[in-house]
Amino acid sequence: MSARAEQVRSEGKGCKVKLIIAAIKPFKLEEVREALTGIGVRGMMVTEIKGFGLQSGHTEIYRGAEYAVNFVPKMRLEIVVADSLADQVIDTITKTARTGKIGDGKIFVLDVSQAVRVRTGETNDDAL
């Protein structure tokens, strides 16, 4: 462990953080963003993605012709939060993004070994 990491650990600064990755339906994005802001989430990254799961795509009719849509549009949210807030974020996304229909999405949670704010050098939850 580096001297800086040891110093941060001994000072008790920067608790553990989690990376929450959620794939949701595009029309739910703004509602989810507002709900997350309401519980104290201060930032997130959003990417337009395409994918498939259990529904394996679907068929649509365009100008009278039926065609297969193998990849369904989704929004990917990446949110890094303090460990203590992770369960609340997951619960908020789950409740807000749910329509009750197939394709509502998925949520994955990963441990983040280190987070650094480039401008100040703050680490872990201080960097959020």
Structure in words:
It is a single chain. The protein has 128 residues and is an alpha+beta fold. It has 3 helices and 6 strands. The chain has helices spanning 3-11, 29-38, 83-97; strands at residues 17-24, 45-51, 58-62, 65-69, 72-82, 105-112. A hairpin with a 2-residue loop joins β3 and β4. It is elongated and about 55 Å long. The two termini are 22 Å apart.
- Element-by-element helix/strand order: HEHEEEEHE
Biggest sheet, in brief? 4 strands, antiparallel
Shape: elongated
Through-space gap between termini = 22 Å
Put simply, the count of helices is 3
Quote the beta fraction.
25-35%
Structural class label? alpha+beta
Portion of residues within helices:
25-40%
- Report low-confidence residues grouped into runs of 5 or more: 5-12
- In the sheet with the most strands, the strands line up as 2-5-1-6
Q: How many beta-strand elements?
A: 6
Radius of gyration: 19 Å
- Average pLDDT for all residues: 86
